[in-house]
Amino acid sequence: MKEQIEKQIKEVLKNLGINEEINFSVEHPESFVNGDYSTNVAMVCAKKIGKNPRELAENIKLELEKNILKEISKVEVAGAGFINFYLSREFFTESVKQILEKKENWGKNEILNGKKVMVEYTQPNPFKPFHIGHLMSNAIGESISRVVEFSGAKTIRANYQGDVGPHVAKAIYGLKKFGMPDSSLIVSAQAQYIGECYSKGSNLYDTDENAKKEIDEINKKIYDKSDEEINKIYDWGRKVTLDAFEEIYKLLGTKFDYYFFESEMAVIGEKIVKENVPKIFEESDGAIIFHGEKYDPKLHTRVFVNSKGLPTYETKEIGLTLTKFEKENPDISIVTTAIEQAEYMKVVQKAISLMHPDLESRMKHITHGMMRLATGKMSSRKGNVITGESLLRDSMDVVLEKITERDFSDIEKREISEIVGVAALKYSILKSSLGSDIVYDFEKSISFEGDSGPYLQYTAVRANSILEKSKVFNQKNGNDIPVEITNLEKILYQFSEVIELSYQKLEPHHIATYLTLLASAFNTFYANTKILSDENKYMVYHLELVNAFYQTMKNGLYLLGIETPKRM
RNA sequence: GCCCUUGUAGUUCAAUGGAUAGAACGAGGCUCUUCUAAGGCCUUGAUGUAGGUUCGAUUCCUACCAAGGGCACCA
């Protein structure tokens, strides 16, 4: 529709003898008082041709009305010189029909047709706890994966996990010192115990000389696999923590296609780095480094192989990136991490671009703010982390508490608490733009009312409830189409535009904001309209509208990685 | 010191350079003999500071202030 209006405006400008290039826009006004679409063309134009903007707007309006699109019922000039378009009843009725035809495909576009996109997210480390930061990355990455899918691309989900390095040595030291967990414990409890051992080992590393020595020793032995006992603990601990992560992914609704491990990437990256000395990397003080500032004053120097000859994270990242392109050759490779890695990633990507100029525009790094505690930065080294499990459990417990009186079976109660608990958590992460830090406070951060995931689900459930009940409702009259147009209809058709925007900017929060607006409009409609009633002349159309809303909400929640329960 | 990100109601967040800056929570009032009240309706209240560009700035530019992050062998 927008394109058609733009096209017509261009024709009108020509007819009015305005031939200059005018950079105008057609948008949805903030308030429906000002129509469904609005253009600033007269204001942009006015100065160029030396005319009063309102006067010019009137001229354009008259010219537009000569050959008005059938979907437009009214054109008005308002404010400083805006031209506002009001869509007709036919347009809205037709758009509801279209939604019902497209069903689960409603909202998809073809921007990325035939393209392949790899999205890397979550990145927890074996032997360390899965904390809120990982939950953030997962929610964002999963949502972006789905948005990309809706844009027509084949999406490949990838996870990258640090299975070597000092953190593993610290955990193994802790396990040796404090003993292995009871093997009868469930996997997540064993994983939690390993996380605690890591934290204790980490503390001792900083405070106890002997512990530090021993941990460094263990670290070497992990690399060269020379110690049977350590190998055994390593294999066991790696499996336990990875299994525990897998349980969380299942709950969160993520299925990865690829798992990359730092241990594998180190070898690959090291070879590449060494091959490119001194062309790109240089030796300095016994280490191999990259002088980012040589290529861009905003970049800095980073170490790729340290003076002990061990590859750093930078080198592993090179191995990882090039492995991705070698294995899948994606058109776009997206990586989602916390913002603390933003500057580092720019340097690494510059180094990669120098070796492979064709990849420069295909690597994208999305950063989100850090989850902080009121007391300061969260650190798994210090042990003051909030684990993913505990947060999910708390969230699900709140839901369980709310439905305790309801007549659901125990199985239903568990299912609902999982679906709604996850939704509350995911929505709280996805509702805001990615830039700023989030100060974590369960009471404030995870909401179940108002602007929240459960609010959206609840609204969908109400709609579903009407649709279910309508199946046994006998009344067959009510075929009229209402003259009046509800806000619900005015918001509904914009869904596909919101998804496009979300993809263009790689920002899921536009969808969250939109769905809340949509749900609010539905709830107002719901409160004002008794749909299943003999009195309702518009029942057939109202049911279609409810169905279209339900479909849109379901598709939208899917894009946020949130399930829609049947009841709650 | 240099670079990056972020400053919006009491609080948590919105607003491709547009119109009267939107929500939610909180506080106060109203609303279930009605399709799920996790709802609806009403009231309350905000752009860090100072300049600049523009017909028009929360948005772009400059400086400053504040918070977080990065800047050589952690990830």
Work out the helix count: 20
> Which descriptor suits the 3D outline?
globular
**Quick one: how many beta strands?**
14
Q: What percent of residues are in strands? A: 5-15%
- The helix content, as a percent range, equals 40-55%
Low-confidence stretches: none
Descriptive report:
- The protein has 568 residues and is an alpha/beta fold.
- Helices cover 53% and strands 12% of the residues.
- It has 20 helices and 14 strands.
- The chain has helices at 2-15, 41-49, 53-65, 89-102, 132-150, 166-178, 187-207, 209-224, 228-252, 262-275, 313-327, 342-355, 388-402, 410-430, 442-445, 453-470, 487-492, 495-505, 509-528, 539-559; strands at 26-27, 37-39, 72-78, 82-87, 116-120, 154-161, 258-261, 282-284, 287-291, 301-305, 332-338, 363-368, 371-373, 438-440.
- Strands 7-6-5-11-12 form a 5-stranded parallel β-sheet, with helices on both faces.
- Helix 18 packs antiparallel against helix 19 (509-528).
- The longest helix has 25 residues, at 228-252.
- It is globular.
- The mean pLDDT is 93.
- The protein binds one RNA strand of 75 nucleotides through helix 2, strand 9, strand 10, helix 12 and helix 16.
